[in-house]
Automatic annotation (TrEMBL), chain A:
Acts as a sulfur carrier required for 2-thiolation of mcm(5)S(2)U at tRNA wobble positions of cytosolic tRNA(Lys), tRNA(Glu) and tRNA(Gln). Serves as sulfur donor in tRNA 2-thiolation reaction by being thiocarboxylated (-COSH) at its C-terminus by the MOCS3 homolog UBA4. The sulfur is then transferred to tRNA to form 2-thiolation of mcm(5)S(2)U. Prior mcm(5) tRNA modification by the elongator complex is required for 2-thiolation. Also acts as a ubiquitin-like protein (UBL) that is covalently conjugated via an isopeptide bond to lysine residues of target proteins such as AHP1. The keyword Transmembrane does not apply. GO terms for cellular component: cytosol. Pathway: tRNA modification; 5-methoxycarbonylmethyl-2-thiouridine-tRNA biosynthesis. The modification 1-thioglycine is found at residue 112. GO terms for biological process: protein urmylation; tRNA thio-modification; tRNA wobble uridine modification. Its main location: cytoplasm. It is found in: Cytoplasm. This is Ubiquitin-related modifier 1. C-terminal thiocarboxylation occurs in 2 steps, it is first acyl-adenylated (-COAMP) via the hesA/moeB/thiF part of UBA4, then thiocarboxylated (-COSH) via the rhodanese domain of UBA4. The gene is URM1. There is a cross-link at residue 112 (Glycyl lysine isopeptide (Gly-Lys) (interchain with K-? in acceptor proteins)). InterPro entries: Beta-grasp_dom_sf, Mopterin_synth/thiamin_S_b, Urm1. Belongs to the URM1 family.
UniProtKB/TrEMBL annotation, chain B:
Residues 54-233 form the tRNA(Ile)-lysidine/2-thiocytidine synthase N-terminal domain. This is Cytoplasmic tRNA 2-thiolation protein 1. It comes from Penicillium malachiteum. Pfam families: ATP_bind_3 (PF01171), zn-ribbon_14 (PF16503). Gene3D superfamilies: HUPs. Residues 349-378 form the Cytoplasmic tRNA 2-thiolation protein 1 C-terminal domain.
Length: 112, 405
């Protein structure tokens, strides 16, 4: 999946958006620009699973990790959109991130 | 990876997998299908008549915002001839409702609908901030639920509108079914599943046009139409985020997405079986509490746990009524004797506020009495955690209503 033109190792800039109440867990910031390593230590390319850990370790300000991640995956009730498409259409957590991707996490769990 | 094409138009890139049938749809087709299904719900249930004036219970959250947007669209597309208004309740919770009311105000402009905001402060002389200051965080949802139900009715009355639509969705209904199933409360289960609730205790009809719409699709509809909505948690109900029935529903959806509509369907089928008058007190319960389940709009709770709140409220009212410190003419029934006798509820006007009530004094006034007497701490020791005992106490409450009528 990784673009060979990137050399595989060039950093991957992406944008991440939290909405539907999830932004509360991320310092009330809705939009985040981040850069992922082009290649991981084990030689694989960063995918959504990696991104989840990255977000928890680097971006999440709230201690309640379980409100975002459960059993090593996105908590049920939180939708993931990869470039506006349901992540199920893109391979879910195995989707390998591409430069310029926009990943949206929307909670359906919050009310008004 | 080549993009998956839309199941419907076969040309655009699919961005959605529908939970109910796994169809993969593009943005345009999804929006159209979602709207068409709400239209079918409306026409099948004959929810509206031409020229009807409708108040949309609007909190600024995803459900009511989507409801307003869809109703506006359908009203224009299918010439319903409806006159739509937004009706919002200001509970008086600083840092919570004031922000979402700003969203509602923007919605009013975006959808070109008149907006009416009714506040607890003006209606009752107590904002929720003041109530919580007095009674504490535990049990305050009870006040909020009772006050909101009446506030929506009163707001509708001010607008001279007799039909309030709320944003309850399929997930909410499924959750209500599960909760009442777990609680053994079939009458409430039955009420929670019906699309329209009309109560003798109220001039106002309530309905939920999004009853069959998945929460997931509501959120995606809002996302893809870039609707302006506000997400928040009520600062006074931190437990709401972890409602166990919700978690169960979401977990089931993850494994088998059709579960949600299946539970709704099961609930409807069970509702048919609920005997309105073979259960002692069942009938009385039905008419007196018919509007209870419609107390939604409470932030994250949004009707999801209103059953619990209402049960807790009944529990607390029962406690109030039995407390000797209360001046009351209500007599407790002898166990086993009167309970099988079913009396129909006589509706009257609350002696204090004139609101239609099944009791001499309506529930809101009873709660206000407690607040005004500065003695709530003894009465309100019931939180959401105490739901287990609610059905028993709710039944006791029914008996009290029976003898009082």
């Amino acid at each position: 999946m990784s673009d060979p033109a990137n050399g595989g190792a060039a950093p991957i800039p992406i944008t991440v958006e939290f909405t539907g109440g999830l932004e509360i867990l991320f310092a009330n910031e809705r939009n985040h620009k981040i850069s992922l390593p082009g290649r991981l230590d084990d030689g694989s390319n960063p995918n959504i699973s990696y991104l989840l850990h990255y977000l928890v370790d680097n971006l999440m300000k709230d201690q309640r990790k379980e409100l975002f991640i459960m059993e090593d995956n996105v908590r049920p009730g939180i939708l993931v959109l990869i470039n506006d498409a349901d992540w199920e259409l893109e391979g879910e957590e195995k989707y390998e991130l591409q430069a310029g991707d926009n990943i949206v996490f929307v909670s359906t769990l919050h009310g008004g | 990876m080549a993009p998956t094409l839309c199941f419907n138009c076969k040309t655009e890139r699919a961005v959605i997998i529908r939970p109910k049938n796994r169809h993969k749809l593009c943005r345009e087709c999804f929006i159209k299908v979602f709207e068409t299904e709400v239209h079918e719900t409306i026409t099948n249930a004959k929810l509206f008549y031409p020229g009807e004036r409708i108040a949309i219970g609007a909190s600024g959250g995803k459900d009511s915002t989507v409801l307003a947007a869809v109703l506006k669209t359908l009203n224009e597309r299918y010439n319903y001839g409806l006159e739509l208004s937004l009706l919002s309740i200001d509970e008086g919770i600083r840092g919570y409702r004031d922000d979402s009311l700003e969203t509602v105000k923007r919605n009013a402009v975006q959808y070109d609908m008149p907006l009416k905001i009714v506040g607890y402060g003006e209606l009752y002389g107590w904002t929720m901030d003041q109530v919580v200051e007095q009674v504490g965080k535990k049990g305050n949802c009870t006040y909020c639920g009772v006050f909101r139900r009446q506030a929506l009715d009163r707001g509708a009355a001010m607008l001279e509108i007799q039909h309030v639509v709320t944003g309850h969705n399929a997930d909410d209904v499924a959750e209500t079914v599960m909760m009442n199933l777990l609680r053994g409360d079939l009458p409430r289960l039955s009420r929670g599943t019906s699309i329209v609730t009309e109560s003798k205790a109220s001039d106002t009809k309530r309905s939920k046009p999004l009853k069959y719409a998945y929460e997931k699709e509501i959120v995606l509809y809002a996302h893809h139409r870039r609707l302006d909505y506000f997400s928040t948690e009520c600062i006074y109900s931190p437990e709401a985020f972890r409602g166990s029935a919700r978690t169960l529903i979401k977990d089931l959806e993850k494994i088998r997405p059709s579960s949600i509509l299946d539970i709704v369907k099961s609930g409807e089928d069970m509702a048919v079986l609920v005997p309105g008058n073979t259960v002692p007190g069942g009938k009385s319960c039905k008419s007196s509490a018919a509007a209870d389940d419609e107390a939604g709009g409470c932030g994250s709770q949004n009707g999801r746990s209103s059953g619990g709140e209402m049960a807790a409220m009944e529990q607390q009212l029962a406690a109030n009524d039995t407390a000797e410190s209360r001046e009351t003419e209500i007599k407790m029934p002898k166990k086993g004797s009167d309970t099988k006798k079913i009396k129909t509820q006589t509706l009257q006007y609350c002696e204090q506020c004139g609101y239609i009530s099944s009791q001499r004094i309506c529930k809101a006034c009873t709660l206000l009495d407690g607040l005004n007497r500065n003695r709530p701490k003894t009465a309100i020791e019931i939180g959401l955690e105490d739901e287990e005992g609610s059905s028993t106490l709710a039944r006791q409450m029914e008996h009290i209503q029976l003898t009082n009528s």
